[in-house]
Amino acid sequence: MNSYSKKRGIISLILFAVVFAFVLYTAIRGYGYDYSGSISDVKLGLDLRGGVSITYQAVGETPSQQDMDDTIRKMQLRVAGYSTEANVYQEGSNRITIDIPGETDANAVLAELGTPGSLIFCLDTSDPEGSKVMDGNDVSAAQAGADQDNNYVVMLTFTEEGQKKFAEATGKIAGTGKPLYIIYDNQIISNPTCENQITSPSCQIEGNFTYDTADTLASYIRIGALPVELTELRSQVVGAQLGSKAISTSLYAALIGLAIVILLMIVLYRMPGFAASVALVSYTGLIVVLLAAFNQEITLTLPGIAGIILGIGMAVDANVIIFSRIREEIGLGNNVAAAINAGFHKALSAIIDGNVTTLLAALVLYIFGTGTVKGFAITLALGIVLSMFTALVVTRLLIKSFYAIGFKNKKWYGEKKPAVSKNFLSKKNIYFCVSGAIIVAGIVAMIIFGTKSYALNYSLDFVGGTSTDVVFNENRNVEQLETEVEPEIAAAIGSTDVVLTPVVGSNEVIIKTQELTQEQRAALYDMLEEKFGIDPSSITYENISATVSSEMARSAILSVILASIVMLIYIWIRFRDIRFASASVLALVHDVFVVLACYALFRWTVGNTFIACMLTLVGYSINATIVVFDRIRENQAQLGNKADLQEVVNLSITQTLGRSVYTSLTTFIMVAALYVLGVTSIREFALPLMVGIVVGAYSSICLSGSMWYLFKTKIGAKKK
Fold first, then answer.
1. Phi/psi at 209 (nearest 5 deg)?
2. Cβ contacts of residue 543 below 8 Å, gap of 6+?
């Protein structure tokens, strides 16, 4: 540290200022002739910009990769007419997802796109497969057009093999008046006749067509000309207005939360707090630049924004650990230079272990999660890596440079006298009873609710069905919804299986029904527009089959279990003591059960973000616990085996108390800003996460050390 001269400090600050300015400029404006790399280049998910998303699954046995590739290519051509940014991609071995961002008339897209099914040409409808002469793979193109008399027709072009089959088929029926049936998904969509055999590679279907009916028939033939038969598993429609509001409010929340955290850091930690604040802004800029740079691989969604904002809060953690260490070293009588070096050195193991365990949770989430949950895992992992970089590299550089140019007085860093141990273990039985009571209350609630319907308030992600999110022009109470709105919905969809849930403090109402067909969805949209003046383009809709919902339920359970096992193994290896690992995992399992109890007691919605919330909680909780255990390990080494074990635990918890409180507070502030300003879907994620942050802090302070102490004295005590 003494070799870090004033000149070197000035040069370092100047170079950092240049890089810092470049990163922020790039994040806001972009660089180069095309101004790439800015926030405007970040690829947004449909929940942020509006549009249509449909997931299909292949019918029957798993198709070959070649067939899947051919199907994707044909579907990509099919949807290109809706948007140049439309995307078709494979999920797993037998699923295909279509995303069409920015489409305003989403229901019309679904109706026209239809459900891709089998297409065959046959001679006898009583035995279609027996009299089949060709199928959709024999048609290379189909489109609406006009003949020389300006009558609308459907023009077909065949493959080389299809041309031969069509010539043979028309030869059999030419001049007989018998039709050639075109059957799509077991329905006759056309039955043309022919006077002469057709041997050319193309032909046209004539009839009393309008352009729309000709185009519809052509689209069915194009869709049917797929190597793989598909069935709809899940579809989602997000209104563009809601998407725009979601991103604006989320970004606004991020800025407010970041500003509060920066102010808090400066007040609490003075000059190091200022350095950390600059590092946090750097972190935010780097996140934006990387998301823009890898926009082909990373799509930013609402849970993704939550992951970034959560990462900002968690980025504070490493800095708080370091600064607390620096203050302790100054309190022990070390000079500032030595304290800075010792602070970074002693904080390193806790920072690495805590962040690696959270990364493991993100990895499990990515592997076993789906859709937006997987996107959340990517942004969370990216945030963790960048937070470590900014704390261990950027903050370190700034603090050393500030010291070198003259900030050498300990008043700029603060001083923490040796902690006076508080007897946390004396109240361990009270802590255990309180936690047990909450968990038991949750279990009882789940049993009671389970006898009536579901133990938890599952969303469609777990039970299947259709959810339609509508913002009415005026507020309606529950009675008005039941008497004025519900009967109209039931009449439109032809079912009384309707549940209306008003969103508190708004005109928004969530309509949950059984899985609706395209016709039912269209009828519902028409009714809402006609009866209540709702703009169809503003309606958010999601349809999930029972297949997908059951998979998501299994994924949620498997993810938490695997994350816990992986963390158990990692901590066991790092601390070389199964009791540290067992206490850590038991504390995080406690946190999961407490939050789960809140889901049961308060009937919070259990949806796809539930998985992200639980695994974030797992990673965040164990991060705090590891900091306590790292200090226990250190104090044991310093005080020796003769030290009173209870005093070691109490002292370690006391020494890390400030870190636990401040880190939890800053993270809570970020998520709270998101909850207050966010849209409904993001608030459903933020609320349980806020509870999880409080519970995680509680368990790391009150439970983890107590459980380790019991394991150590009961399991590891030597017999006399």
1. -90, 145
2. 232, 234, 235, 236, 460, 465, 466, 467, 515, 516, 521
Strands 119-122 and 95-101: unpaired
**Residue 366, Cβ neighbours under 10 Å: how many?**
18
Closest CA relative to residue 180, chosen from 128, 122, 118, 127? 122
Other CB atoms within 10 A of residue 647 CB: 14
Alpha-helix runs per DSSP H in 88-226: 106-113, 160-173, 211-224
Residue 4 CA: distances (Å) to CA of 11, 396, 398, 405, 473: 11, 12, 12, 10, 65
**CA 377 to chain CA mean position, Å:** 7
d(CA 612, CA 614): 6
Task: State the Cα–Cα distance between residues 257 and 674, nearest whole angstrom.
Answer: 8
In this structure, what token pair is assigned to residue 115?
């459900």
For residue 677, CA distances in Å to 379, 427, 498, 667, 683 come to 21, 38, 29, 16, 8
Burial class (CB in 10 A: 0-12, 13-18, 19+), 327: buried
Amino acid letter for position 616: T
Give the model's pLDDT for residue 719: 45
Judged on CB neighbours under 10 Å (0-12, 13-18, 19+), 311 is buried
Task: Compute the distance between CA of residue 578 and CA of residue 481 in angstroms, rounded to an integer.
Answer: 56
Alpha carbon distance 671, 309 (integer Å): 7
Burial class (CB in 10 A: 0-12, 13-18, 19+), 534: middle
In angstroms and rounded to an integer, the radius of gyration of the C-alpha atoms of the chain is 31
d(CA 260, CA 160): 68
CA atoms within 13 A on the CB side of 188: 13
CB 709 within 8 A of CB 616: no
Q: Six-digit token pair at 562?
A: 């695997």
Distance CA 222, CA 141 (A): 7
Question: 3-state class of 498 per DSSP?
Answer: strand
- Cα–Cα–Cα angle for 247, 251, 254, nearest 5°? 145
Complete domains list, the chain, with CATH? 51-114+234-238 (3.30.70.3400), 119-225 (3.30.1360.200), 248-408 (1.20.1640.10), 428-443+548-715 (1.20.1640.10), 465-544 (3.30.70.3400)
DSSP one-letter code for 45: P
End-to-end CA distance of the chain: 50
Q: Are strands 457-458 and 605-606 parallel, antiparallel or unpaired?
A: parallel
∠46-72-114 over CA atoms, to 5°?
Answer: 65
Q: What is the distance between the alpha carbons of residues 44 and 595, in angstroms, rounded to a whole number?
A: 30
d(CA 596, CA 43): 33
Q: In what order do the strands lie in the sheet with 230-238?
A: 87-91, 95-101, 51-58, 230-238, 540-544, 465-471, 508-513, 498-502
Whole-Å CA distances, 164 to 168, 194, 201, 291: 6, 16, 9, 52
CA-to-CA separations, 463 to 58, 313, 442, in angstroms, rounded: 21, 33, 21
Split the chain (720 residues) into runs of 10 and give each run's mean pLDDT: 75 93 90 80 77 84 84 77 78 84 68 69 91 89 89 94 94 93 88 93 92 86 77 73 68 85 91 93 91 82 73 80 90 90 89 83 77 74 88 92 92 83 92 95 93 80 79 79 87 86 77 82 88 80 69 70 81 85 88 92 81 73 84 86 86 89 87 82 83 91 93 66
Alpha carbon separation from 157 to 179, 543, 647 (Å, rounded): 19, 35, 85
For the whole model, what pTM was predicted?
0.74
SS3 assignment, position 662: helix
- CA dihedral of residues 397, 398, 399, 405 (deg, nearest 10): 110
